[in-house]
Each structure stands twice: as C-alpha cells, then as structure tokens.
C-alpha cells in the first residue's frame, strides 16, 4: 500500500506539473497574442524658480600713496568720481579703511547695492564705475575702474614691484562676515614664497590695503590669485610707475576672467601718442600681453588679433608657456589702432594686457583684462573722462545687433558681424543699458588729458537656476 501511495503521489505531482506547464504555455501564448493593459503613474514634481539675488558692486575708493614699499599704511589724496547705472535708485554705503591714514577726508570705499523686487526671478541691472586723475610729484596719471562684485576667487594679472614700481592690493569686504583671505603670487620665476600672505583677516564692512612688495619684492611680472573664506571680497591692485624722479602713470588692475583654454581681451588700444620704447631688456612702456598657465602642465598658446578698424589683421603669434611662470609677450609690432586679442591654449591660462600713452614729458599706462561673454542684457557705467569708447567683440558665429540705451540722450544701435569687433564712442559720466549683446565681449577705454585707463565689462555672477523638486 505504501508503494501504491508513493506512486499515486508521484503521479499526481507529474500530472500537476504537466497541467502547470500547459497553463504556462497557454499564458505565454496569450501574452504573445493579446496586448495586456499598461499601468503607468507620473512621478510628481514641481519646478521651483529661486527669487533673484540682491545686487552689490564694490568701488575701491580714492587713489592712495603708500607710506613706504613695505608699509601697510597709505593715505588717499583726492576724491574719485563715481558713476552709477541702475533701473531704480540704488543705495550707496561707505565702508571703513582702517589703514588709510587720511580716513574718509577724500572719500572711502563704497558698496552700491540694489535689492531685487519681491518674488522677482531676474536680478536688477546694476553697474558702477569710478575715475580719478593724479598730479603729484611721485604719482600722476588717470585711473578708472568698474566697481566689482565681491567674489571668493579673483585673478589679478598686472602690476609690478620692481624698482620705481608700486602695487597696492586693496581687499574690500562688503559682507556681514569676516573674510579669511589667502594670496598666491606668481612671477617671472614661478610661485613666490610669500610669508604672511595666508589667512589675512579682512573684517566685515572694511577694506584692507596691502603693499604687494611686502610679500614679493622686485617682481617684474606679478600675477596674483586671491581666494577667500567666510565673507567674499573685491580685490584690485593700484599700480603706479616712477622712472628716475618722474612719475609715469597710475592704473587699477581689476580681476580678469577665470582660467580657461580660451580668453578674449577686447579693445586693446595702441595709441598714436604711445611713448618711445627703449631697447632695454625690459621696458614697461612696451605694450605687452601677460599670461600664466597656473596648472602643472606647460601650455602651447596661439594669440590672434582682430582689428576694430577692419581690414587685414596682424598675423597670429605662437608661444610655449611654462607651467606657473608669469610671462609677457611684446605687442610692440602692432600698428596703431585697437584690437581684440584671442588667446587659445592647450591648458587653462589667465591673461591681461598693458599699453601706454605719452603725456607731455611723462606717460601713463592702462591695464586691459580678459572678460567672459555678456548676457542678453547688461548695464554699463561709463566713468568720467574725455573720450570713452565701448569696445565690443563678437566671437559668435552669428551677427549681433546691439542697442545701447543711455541714461540721457539717443539710443545707439550697432551691427556686429560674426567674428568682428567695433569701437563705439560713448559719453563719460553716463550709463547705458545694453541689449542684444549675448555672447559679446566688452571693454571700456577712457582717455583724458592726464592719461589712459581701461577695464573689462564683466557679466554679473550667475544667478540660481530653476530646480525640479520631486517630493517624497
């Protein structure tokens, strides 16, 4: 009986298995023959657009004289003239400069701020710029600068601490938090060991003035990298030159575009009244392009030129840059005119350019910075000066039609074909709301009876972009 039961159970399992296989086969047949209904469910989500950030621009304040090359104290001696452009009425708040021995007798650093409208998704357009002439026994010339957004990182390509050259680094903290600032300095010999250049405290709402020579004396071609933690700072170098007993210019060195494989510097002016350049090994009256590849790899660089006057442009130049070495390339052979300079490199580089003009028996200098592409709309403040020019380069593959709507006067319209550059005369002491400029590169140059100055039109720091949120 036991054997029969075992056989019966086994037979039952076999039958059940056969039936199961049959059912499965039928199921497969059914699935292959008939389309089953599909059940889908959309994942819930929401797009959140952040409100626009308030805008702030930091103006460095008046020109200063150092008490000595290694001194941390300086004195202002005259007032800078300020130009502001905005869509409403921005606030101007003076800041404190504790080591300016003149205090606020001639003005002070200023933060120009404009809050965003409630629930606005685009930031207000805001710009400010300052200019000042100097005519002292050891400091003369004309200097202008855009008021800059504070940042956690800046590259300053310019200045010198060689004999007769003075570079004052101004660090301005407009935020509510103290900033801890680190300064890295590079020169013609590479990175500089600069004791005291790390962990510099710039208190909230204050400006700190520092002599670059106190960290790195006798540098011909310095490049300065400023980084900050905590509060953000606006960094700028005041560079002045004395040859013998005669002052030969003063200029601001503003932040240039971040390190990249491609850099554009528009509006580099080779003036008809450029000073005579000597045949010495190094003459900083010589127009030059200063560059550095800040990484660990050498860079092969091609420098191309586009003339704003049209016609045939100068031939490109090719150079090899050693990693970490600040290098100058002479632009002495450029004909009189203004140019857009394009730097193409196999490694990221930062760049700036210097030119000079004769002023009587003396001279003055200008520093030009690389800049990044403009957005569709931007505000530009033009500092007071006799012959300001807005230089616009179009590296895009399409033509641009740019409109400049002034704070007073008639709108200026300019068509810029792809791959060309233009120079547009503008009014000193005015502001312009620019539209149609997306992708363009811009620089302002200003000449006056006391010299020349220039600064790049840098786009505002990018705002927060819309974010898609998936609730749980």
TrEMBL record:
One Pfam family of this chain: DUF5719
Native organism taxonomy: Bacteria, Bacillati, Actinomycetota, Actinomycetes, Micrococcales
Designated name of the protein: Large extracellular alpha-helical protein
Compositionally biased residues, Polar residues: 85-94
Region (Disordered): 80-99
């Amino acid at each position: 009986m036991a054997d029969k039961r075992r056989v019966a159970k086994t037979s039952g399992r076999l039958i059940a298995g056969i039936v199961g296989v049959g059912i499965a086969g039928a199921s497969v047949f059914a699935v292959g023959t008939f389309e089953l209904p599909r059940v889908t469910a959309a994942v819930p989500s929401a797009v959140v657009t952040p409100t626009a950030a308030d805008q702030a621009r930091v103006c460095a304040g008046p020109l200063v004289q150092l008490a000595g090359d290694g001194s941390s104290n300086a004195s202002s001696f005259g007032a800078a003239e300020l130009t502001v452009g905005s869509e409403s009425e921005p606030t101007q708040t003076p800041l404190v400069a504790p080591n300016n021995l003149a205090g606020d007798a001639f003005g002070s650093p200023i933060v120009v701020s404009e809050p965003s409208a409630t629930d606005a998704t685009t930031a207000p357009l805001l710009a400010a710029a300052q200019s000042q002439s100097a005519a002292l026994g050891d400091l003369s010339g004309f200097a202008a600068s855009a008021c800059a957004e504070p940042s956690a990182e800046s590259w300053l390509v310019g200045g010198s601490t060689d004999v007769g050259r003075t570079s004052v680094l101004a660090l301005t903290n407009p935020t509510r938090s103290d900033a801890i600032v680190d300064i890295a300095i590079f020169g013609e010999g590479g990175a500089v060991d600069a004791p005291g250049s790390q962990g510099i405290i710039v208190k909230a709402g204050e400006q700190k003035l520092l002599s670059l020579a106190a960290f790195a004396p006798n540098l011909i071609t310095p490049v300065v990298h400023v980084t900050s933690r905590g509060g953000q700072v606006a960094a700028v170098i005041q560079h002045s030159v004395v040859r013998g007993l005669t002052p030969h210019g003063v200029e601001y060195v503003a932040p240039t575009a971040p390190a990249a494989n491609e850099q554009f510097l528009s509006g580099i002016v080779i003036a008809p009244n450029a000073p005579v350049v000597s045949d010495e090994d190094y003459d900083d009256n010589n127009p030059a392009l200063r560059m550095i590849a800040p990484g660990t790899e050498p860079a092969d660089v091609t420098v191309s030129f586009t003339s704003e006057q049209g016609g045939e442009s100068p031939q490109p130049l090719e150079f090899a840059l050693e990693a970490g070495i600040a290098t100058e390339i002479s632009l002495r052979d450029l004909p009189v005119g203004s140019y857009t300079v394009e730097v193409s490199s196999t490694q990221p580089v930062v760049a700036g350019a210097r030119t000079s003009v004769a002023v009587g028996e003396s001279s003055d200098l200008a520093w030009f910075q690389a800049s990044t592409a403009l957005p569709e709309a931007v505000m530009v403040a033009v500092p007071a000066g006799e012959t300001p020019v807005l230089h616009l380069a179009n590296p895009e593959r399409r033509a641009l039609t740019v409109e400049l709507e002034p704070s007073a006067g008639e709108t200026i319209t300019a068509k810029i074909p792809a791959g060309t550059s233009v120079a547009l005369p503008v009014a000193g002491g005015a502001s312009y709301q620019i539209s149609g400029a997306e992708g363009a590169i811009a620089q302002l140059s200003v000449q006056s009876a006391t010299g020349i100055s220039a600064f790049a039109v840098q786009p505002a720091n990018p705002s927060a972009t819309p974010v898609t949120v998936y609730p749980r």
